[in-house]
Amino acid sequence: MKKSKQTRKNRLDAPGSTIKDFFRSMFIGHGGSTQDSVHVRDAIDVKRTMTLVGLCLLPTILLGIYNTGLQAKLAIIAGASAANSWQSSLFSLIFKPLSADTGAVATFSYGLCYFLPIYLVALLMTLLWEMVFAKARKQDLHEGFFVTALLFSLCMPAHIALWLVVLGVSFGVVVAKELFGGMGYNFLNPALAGLAFIYFAYPAEVTTSAQLVAVDGYSGATTLAQVAANKLHFTDYAWYQAFSDASWWQAFLGFEVGAIGETSTLAILLGGGLLLLTRLADWRIVAGVMLGMIVSTLLFNYFGNSRSAWTAMPWTWHLVTGGFALGMMFMATDPVTTAYTRPGKLLFGILVGAMTVVIRIANVKMPEGIMLAILFANLWAPLMDSLVARFNIRRRIKRNGLQ
User: Fold this and answer.
1) Where do the coiled-coil regions begin and end (predicted)?
2) Contact 321, 251 (CB under 8 A)
3) pTM of the model
4) What is the CB neighbour count within 10 angstroms for residue 179?
């Protein structure tokens, strides 16, 4: 009997069976338990954590897919032509070609035809690299690739080439994560690192408005692009006036041009609120990002050039433009790449919020500042924890009279 238990334990811990056990554990849980004396027992693990994060992202995914189809429909009504792509052809085989008469279900399906290939390609590439490194290290295959692929896909424009998805997610997983030891050892957010790579390497394929709408001949501009071009004016625009502004509500609800999962601030806040309630995200980081963004925005509003749309832009507009909300709720709160101490988390969030506004104002060619702000703060997170630890050590030494 004792021998059979030991054999079973060795089989569960065998590195050669990790990939098979991983897929099996997604549907069937084994009854293995630890045999040593003292262990902390908790129902939460990596798989359940990633599943909950995916559920929290569900409102963002659904609204993002619908808005992708909606923006394509509105562009066609405005005079653009249907996209000459295999996704559009696939949609036309199932439904009629996209037009002004297309219903809500078909509009959602059109967006799904563009989002699903992006996500499947990102998912397969992250899974491939995770399997390669898990096999090489003889380690377990963790479920973190699921959320990495999802977050990366939500930051993509709908009309992006799939080879860019392969390139970006591969860079993020391999260079920003696996080369530093894999899950739990990376100091940069892999989804953002992959996004930053293709953002700088292929800016024309990612940053133009034509890539954000799944049609041909689109000539509109995002809210961030209009602000960067100084086409929106916020002179004498108080922050609370946004709540009576129809354009602000449209941006808040998410019915505007943008990356697939970055448009609906409402959906992101709903999912992010659930993330905070389950304590998978720390409220200090979210509060810090909001505080840093609001304070820095107010300073630019007061001391900046009132003729510049960026410096006059109130914080309520910063909240609903670009990927700020998604970055605040789901990127900055990554438990691996953020600070670990409680004061460090607050400082980390403040740095992200302040840097976002500074990057948006200082570099009009890069209005999407939240991505670089989080990556920049990732580099400073260990120093923040070190400073907090040193401060606590000195305080306790002084309190206990050891100095």
Assistant:
1) none
2) yes
3) 0.86
4) 12
**Number of Cα atoms under 13 Å in the Cβ half of residue 188:** 24
* Contact predicate 283/215, CB 8 Å: no
Question: What DSSP element (H or E) covers 381?
Answer: helix 370-399
Q: Residue 276: inside a domain, yes or no?
A: yes
328, containing H or E segment: none
* 20 against 137, higher pLDDT: 137
* Residues 177, 186 contacting (CB under 8 angstroms): yes
For the chain, first and last CA: distance in Å? 59
Q: Count CA within 13 A, CB hemisphere, residue 325.
A: 29
Please check whether residue 28 lies inside any domain of the structure: no
Distance CA(361)–CA(251), nearest Å, equals 20
Three-state SS across 181-240? CCCCCCCCCHHHHHHHHHHHHCHHHHCCHHHHCCEECCCCCCHHHHHHCCCCCCCCCCHH
In a domain? residue 310? yes
Percent of the chain at pLDDT exceeding 70? 87
H/E element holding 82? strand 81-82
pLDDT tens-place string over residues 291-317 = 999 999 999 998 877 677 888 899 999
Q: Which of 262, 139, 147, 134 is nearest to 206 (CA)?
A: 262
Encode pLDDT of 185-224 as tens digits: 888 999 999 999 998 888 877 777 778 888 887 777 778 8
- Alpha-carbon distance 339 to 337, whole Å? 7
User: What domain range includes position 231?
Assistant: 221-403
**Whole-angstrom Cα distance, residue 179 to residue 251?**
39
Please say if the pLDDT value at position 238 is more than 90: no
Number of domains comprising the chain: 1
Is the residue at 303 inside a domain? yes
